[in-house]
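FIELD: query
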Amino acid sequence: MSELVGFLTLGFRHITDPGAIDHLLFLVALAAIYRGREWRDAVRVVTAFTVGHSITLALAGIGAVTLPTPLIEFLIPLTIVVTGVENIAVRDRAAAPWGRRYRPLLAGGFGLVHGAGFANYLQNLFDGPIVLPLLGFNLGIELGQLLVLAGAAVALALLDRVVPPRARTVLVSAAVVVVAARLAVERLPW
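FIELD: result
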């Protein structure tokens, strides 16, 4: 049980650590389009991100995949840029291709990339069976993401009081894109 709690704590800290700016930015980018009544949609999207993250971690944990760290560290902020740009470009989600259903798929796919960013580190921590550590780590990630999502929801709701909803989405997404683009340039693998 202590191993489960240890990995749960590690996953939670991985997401909530201010030094993990890429994950925080990604969560803010995912949340930027949602309003108070759409919290279930936001949770679904963030959970899809965790599923993608978990798949990559599981594959790395069993040694099925090893990915080049410099490339992954570059791709992570690129996924944030794409998410922010998508937030700005898609004005009417209901009229978008696949309606609102594509958003969890996008987050899950990008979760595969983000999971690869921590996979190499976790491989060194696994000593024996990976099921319990992986479960604990992913539960910690999900709890951390829900906490960050709740904080983002409060901040976004406060912004909604002073800025029209579409302007809020554009402002928050543009700020995220600028920071993530800078991270991507700093992490160019070539």
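FIELD: remark
The chain is about 75% helix and 0% strand.
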